[in-house]
Design a protein that fits this description.
- This protein has helices spanning 7-13, 15-23, 25-35, 45-49, 58-68, 98-107; strands at residues 39-42, 109-112.
- The chain is globular and about 40 Å long.
- It is 46% helix and 7% strand.
- It is mainly alpha-helical.
Length: 114
Amino acid sequence: MEHYPDLEQDIYDCDWLSKKIETNEQYAQHFYAALCNNEFQRNAVWPILREQTWSCTWRYAGGIVAHLRDNEDYIDWYCSGMGQKDLTGFVGEGFVTDEVREDLLRLGWRVVDG
């Protein structure tokens, strides 16, 4: 059985990133937005050569963030970039901030640019 890189598991296993998502609501929304409508690839030779990518649905992305934020509900984040919350600083689904991009690289992942 071939093992595919799993961004979700890497996020859960990374203490500093999990804590950042848990404690910073704006960053959590930015991270959620980045997970939406994007593909990610482990920044390593074999996943790149094999063109192995990871992606998830908006609902699933909301679930990841909600889980890290002390078991909130995915719906708290789902469509949060579409004006569903009256908070400034939120970004639209699919947008990857520089901070999130840098944190993903630090984690060993890159956003696959179309």
